[in-house]
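Handout, page 2. Input:
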Amino acid sequence: MSINSDTLLSDAVRRSLRLATCALSLAAPLSAVAAEAPVHWTANSAPSETMITGGGWTLEQSGAAVGLKSVGYCDSNGNQIGNPGTERMQPYYFPTIVGQGRNLQGYFDWRPKDVDEAVAAAESHDGGHTWTFQQKVLELRTSCPNQLNKEADGSKDSNAFNLANNSDNGDDDGQGHQFVIKVGAHTYLYTLDRANGHIDSDDLYIHEISPVPGQPLNGAPAMNDGPTDSTASLPEIANHTHGLLNPEGILGVVPGSWPLQIVYEQKILNGDNSGTTALPPSQCVPASTMRR
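Output:
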């Protein structure tokens, strides 16, 4: 569907820069690629684990992946520990990668389950096998997990060990699903607000950034500046997109397009079983048959 340039730009930016945008669904970016030959991929090696050096807490640095949700997240003085060396690149997800050859710049949604969320940047010089942390912005919180997590049987065994090593903060609903677009002399960071009452209904948030060596997200706030689950009654921030429908995040920019064309994900929360988008019963899978 065609939409006005103002879809991607805030009111303040609109006054100084006019940009036309075409929002394309995942199923129909055909106008941009219809004349191009298909792209064929060939696997040249077995899958391997991706590692990151430095940055925020990682899932397996102290054994969190074996059932202790927050082990190693904070020290005895209540300070976040972070990644002490080189670890598996978890919980980094929703990657957006730019660059050429072996030299890559990555932007990631860093999201420890029910504990925290932030937008992170890292660089790779071996084609994405290993990454070096650069920067973390828009972090949801800096507090240590303090809500006891349930055991596998559903119980909560309250003791000092579990409180320190098997707790969370109740939610991880900050800003994520990041995407960076450069337009002329301006660079913009777009994010999804995941807070209750805002996710998949708010527009994407916009922060103009000024990347510098080692800090590709320079200019974005260190801490989350949007509504959270505890402040859900607040409105979306002033700088946001206009016209995108239930945006979950931008997935890409059509190369060489001008006016600029993007591919973005539209997500209607509970749309499969409510309203005009509800699926017929014959196309639904009973929850009781789904594997967890």
